[in-house]
Design brief:
The complex is a heterodimer. By secondary structure, chain A is of the alpha+beta class. Helices cover 54% and strands 18% of the residues of chain A. Classes of the chains: A alpha+beta, B alpha+beta.
């Protein structure tokens, strides 16, 4: 497959959160988003393209992302996504709730 | 909320820029792929392009997913796609699709048609304002066996004057009138009604007005027309209001026209049950107002005051009845004569007699619906079972459960819609095919139409069944682990025990229901056969009859009526081919006058009533009624008043048991000295003749020569009593061939006279049993349909079952079982189910037959012929149904099958 066996699939439902977080650091096209998540997770998480694009479009439909066509670093036309105001709000809420629940899960797992 | 709004905005935009979005997506994905490819190549991959594509996955599927997201109503778009897919799938299994559609269509169609009839007759509102407050008032003569209880005019007037419980009461009476304007002379059904009737019913005229209170008296000739007569005879001309028309050859002023939907009197009551085409005021004469104890012929209805209950009404009527009894002539009272008053809801009076047969019909049709549902369930289930593998594969390939659910649902929906459309067509045909002679026996027949709610109900039931069973297989498979389903299906030995049991239970229940319906149909067929061989007491073949009524204006005197009799008798007797002819007030199968009689010097324990018929000419000879004793009327008696009478055997037995009645005397009225009627001498005894629909018990019957009909009545009484002329001619040729000759003979005597009907006696018999014949045909059709459905169900179970058991059968064959063994195995499976169904069906049928016993004629509910034939029919059908599957099973090629696995 060309993909390391230690690479975990992105948990269902967390993909949107990861996309929002990725785009929060500056507008990116789809490929960059996938690569950024892969790199930022120290190559632990890999995003399936089959899920990435539907998720991007869903987020755009819901008005959390906006997009525009621009020229990429290697001089090719690419579609860039950026956060909208409501996207930023959603990111904040989702991050908080994720932190709370993952802490809770860790606590449970560490309990003796 | 904001998110939802923006989503909607984005979707709207997506709708407008659909092509743009598609292109964007393609570009975007292409860009991604080329980036990934470049990266892989840089890291030294050999097939960078292929690897990139493989990790990316299906671009098509991403596109599909997004297209759905873009759609304004994503579900709808998906559903349209599902439908298209469903149609494609069904086209691959045309046999299944057709059988399910036809099953649904038959079930829905029959059920809807029948329920529409019952609805029109029993359930629909009467069409009058607040009709729940309308009641029918009845007046019984205590101790008399009258089957209906109509009022006598003076008693009605007393109730009308004294009652406190009603907003008002009104009387009505059917009669007929000759209408010569606007075409051939015809007799139309008419009704005399109290002036207040229309207000009481709460109906408004379409044109003009109804009657004023001052018009309800003799000498005011005003009329209200029905919509059909206004249309057919007067071209719907509004100028008809205040125009003068001739009815029974007398001028009437038309004051109004009623709307098309207004129908009164309503069908279904025993008397006064013919919807009128013209209404005239009741206009009681002074004589009628005073004639206590006479003319019990008025139907009376009343509208309850607010807050008054039926119980209060009955209490008041009891008091009124006492007062009325006190005003009866002492002679009558001294003889123990008294009347009683009662009230029932109008709806009950109208639909009471038809309720039982109609509810039976409804029960039968309910069974058909059950059979339909169980059968559709079985078919869909069989098919679903064979798709378990397909579904498991789809689940394994990542199809979502919701998506599959929708697909299965779409298939069921396609079948349901097709079935419902077929059902609608069938129900329209069935409702349209109800013969007029049957429609006339049902209340509210004019407005029978396919009812949308009923259609929705039956279609809903059947479709719900189809869908539930279509979805069943989906829940049997764990989407996380479709493996077991795949493996099980691959092994293909015998179907899962659970589903097999369910399907067998469905087949058994279908057999039970079909059995019950077949027994019902069998009993009705046997009843009808018994009815057709019943002794009518006359010889109908070769007899042609015609009916007419002499209008008062053209025949105002007794002499003119009698001279018409003479002319018609002469003309008819001399028609070529006629052997004999006779005139009569009422033919067999009809009833004209019923009155009390007193045999001389016989103390009868109960008061006796008899039907009475007046004849002119050789009536008994013409109709083929047997003279049992004595002689027919002589020529002298036909023309002169000789005070003679001929009675039927039943009357003779009642009045003079064990004695020779010839020479005995009787007179009309009660056995009291004040009775002014002359004694009549019995000169002959004839056989009993049916005087109602075939199969109805014969009644006491007396015949007088028309010469004895009182001139006083013909000269003075303003009713058609004694003016009804029926002619019967006996011929050696086919009776119907004589019709035109008879018609012109009548026209030769009076060209303006309307002929009400001209029909052979055989036709009249056939009409009298039309409702029964209709029940027989319908029930037989239902039973046949249920049998067919049961056969389809059995066939389906076996055929699909064998397809599933191919491997098992192949193994058996390979191990040395002959084809005969396999056939026996399949047959045994079928017969096991059928015999369980037949035994349970017989028990159920016995209970049902017992409940329907009163509707049978000359047939026991436990009729051995029926109960012996039905199981044979069932088993024979089952053998036919399983012949093909059994043959197929025996032809399984063991090696090919085993290798294929």
């Amino acid at each position: 497959m060309g993909v390391d066996k230690s690479v975990a699939a992105v948990l269902q439902g967390t993909l949107e959160l990861l996309i929002l977080r990725t785009v929060a650091s500056g507008e990116k096209h789809g490929y960059e988003i996938a690569e950024w998540i892969h790199a930022a997770s120290a190559e632990t998480l890999s995003v399936e393209e089959g899920a990435l694009y539907p998720a991007l479009h869903r987020l755009e439909l819901r008005g959390l992302l906006a997009s525009a066509w621009d020229v990429s670093a290697n001089n090719r036309r690419a579609k860039y996504y950026r956060l909208t105001a409501s996207g930023r709000r959603r990111l904040k809420e989702s991050t908080e709730s994720w932190r709370r629940s993952s802490a809770a899960i860790n606590q449970v797992l560490d309990a003796t | 909320m904001a998110e939802w709004l923006s989503s909607l905005r984005q979707r709207a935009r997506a709708l407008l820029r659909r092509r743009r979005l598609e292109q964007d997506l393609q570009d975007e994905m292409a860009f991604h792929l080329s980036m990934r490819e470049a990266q892989l190549r840089a890291s030294g991959a050999a097939d960078a392009g292929i690897d990139a594509r493989r990790t990316f996955g299906s671009t098509v599927r991403i596109g599909e997913e997004l297209r759905e997201a873009w759609a304004v109503a994503p579900r709808l778009a998906g559903f349209v796609q599902d439908l298209r897919y469903a149609l494609r799938t069904l086209r691959r299994y045309p046999g299944f699709a057709i059988v399910v559609t036809v099953t649904l269509g038959l079930g829905i169609g029959i059920n809807t048609a029948t329920f529409s009839i019952v609805n029109a007759a029993l359930i629909k509102p009467l069409g009058f304002a607040d009709s729940d407050r309308l009641v029918a008032l009845q007046e019984q003569m205590v101790g008399f066996e009258f089957d209906d209880a109509p009022f006598s005019p003076p008693d009605f007037l007393d109730v009308q004057r004294d009652q406190q419980s009603f907003v008002g009461v009104a009387a009505y009476l059917n009669f007929s009138l000759e209408l010569a304007e606007g075409g051939e002379p015809v007799r139309i059904d008419a009704a005399k009604v109290s002036a207040t009737l229309f207000t009481l019913l709460g109906v408004q005229p379409l044109l003009g007005r109804t009657f004023g209170p001052d018009e309800d008296r003799p000498g005011v000739d005003v009329a209200v027309l029905s919509w059909p007569v206004w249309q057919t005879r007067f071209g719907g001309d509004p100028a008809i209001v205040s125009a003068t028309i001739r009815l029974d050859r007398r001028p009437y002023t038309v004051v109004g026209v009623m709307p098309a939907a207004f129908e009164f009197p309503r069908r279904g009551t025993v008397l006064n049950n013919k919807p009128a085409d013209v209404w005239v005021p009741m206009a009681f004469t002074d004589r009628q107002r005073q004639a206590r104890g006479e003319e019990f012929n008025q139907n009376v209805i009343g509208r309850l005051k607010d807050g008054v209950s039926l119980a209060q009404v009955r209490a008041e009527l009891a008091t009124l009845a006492e007062r009325i009894n006190a005003s009866y002539p002492p002679a009558l009272r001294g003889n123990g004569f008294s009347i009683a008053l009662s009230a029932i809801p109008l709806r009950e009076q109208i639909s009471g007699r038809t309720e039982r047969p109609l509810l039976l019909l409804l029960a039968a049709v309910g069974l058909v619906l059950l059979v339909t549902c169980s059968n559709v369930a079985n078919l869909v289930l069989s098919r679903a079972a064979s798709r378990t593998r397909e579904i498991a594969v789809r689940l394994a390939l990542g199809s979502s459960r919701a998506r599959l659910l929708r697909l299965l649902f779409a298939e069921a929906a396609v079948l349901a819609v097709a079935g419902s459309l077929l059902g609608l067509a069938i129900s329209n045909v069935v409702v349209g095919a109800i013969p007029a002679s049957v429609a006339e026996t049902l209340p509210a027949a004019r407005d029978i139409s396919v009812d949308a709610r009923v259609l929705a109900f039956s279609a809903g039931t059947a479709i719900f069944t189809a869908i539930v069973f279509a979805l069943l297989p989906l829940f049997g498979i764990d989407s996380g682990m479709p493996g077991p389903a795949l493996q099980e299906e691959a092994i293909r030995t015998t179907p899962g025990v659970h589903r097999h049991r369910l399907q067998s239970a469905l087949v058994v229940s279908t057999v039970i229901l079909a059995f019950v319906l077949l027994v019902g149909a069998g009993l009705f067929i046997r009843s009808f056969a018994a009815l057709m061989t019943v002794e009518t007491g006359f010889r109908p073949s070769g007899v042609l009859t015609a009916a007419m009524t002499l209008p008062r204006a053209g025949y105002s005197t007794a002499a003119s009526v009698r001279s018409f009799h003479v002319s018609l008798f002469k003309e008819a007797s001399s028609l070529p081919g006629v052997r004999s002819a006779a005139l009569v007030t009422d033919l067999p199968l009809e009833r004209y006058e019923r009155r009390t009689f007193a045999p001389e010097a016989v103390n009868m324990r109960t008061r006796a009533n008899t039907n009475l018929t007046w004849v002119y000419g050789p009536y008994f000879q013409t109709l083929g009624i047997e003279m049992k004793r004595g002689r027919p009327f002589s020529d002298v008696e036909t023309t002169e008043r000789r005070q003679v009478v001929i009675v039927n055997e039943r009357l003779a037995r009642t009045a003079w048991p064990g004695q020779d009645p010839v020479g005995k005397r009787l007179r009309w009225g009660l056995d009291v000295p004040e009775n002014p009627n002359p004694w009549l001498t019995v000169v002959g005894v004839v056989g009993d003749v049916a005087d109602g629909p075939l199969g109805a018990p014969t009644y006491l019957h007396a015949y007088e020569p028309f010469s004895q009909f009182p001139d006083r009545v013909l000269n003075n009484v303003p009713t058609a009593f004694g003016r009804h002329v029926k002619i019967a001619v006996r011929t050696d040729r086919p009776a119907s061939a004589l019709a035109s000759a008879l018609r012109s003979a009548i026209a030769g005597i009076d060209p303006n006279l309307a002929i009400e009907s001209i029909a052979t006696m055989d036709e009249r018999i056939s009409d009298s049993v039309a409702p029964r014949r209709f029940s027989v045909i319908t029930l037989t059709a239902f039973a046949g349909g249920a049998l067919l459905l049961a056969a389809i169900g059995l066939y389906g179970l076996l055929a699909f079952g064998i397809a599933e058991r191919r491997r098992e059968i192949a193994v058996r064959l390979a191990l040395g079982a002959g084809p005969a063994t396999i056939v026996r195995m399949v047959m045994a499976q079928a017969l096991k189910l059928v015999s369980v169904g037949v035994v349970a069906g017989a028990v159920a049928a016995l209970a049902v037959a017992n409940a329907a016993a009163s509707l049978l004629y000359g047939t026991e509910p436990y009729d051995s012929v029926t109960f012996a034939t039905v199981p044979l029919v069932m088993v024979a059908t089952a053998l036919v149904a399983c012949a093909l599957p059994a043959y197929r099973a025996s032809r399984v090629e063991s090696f090919i099958t085993l290798r294929a696995e």
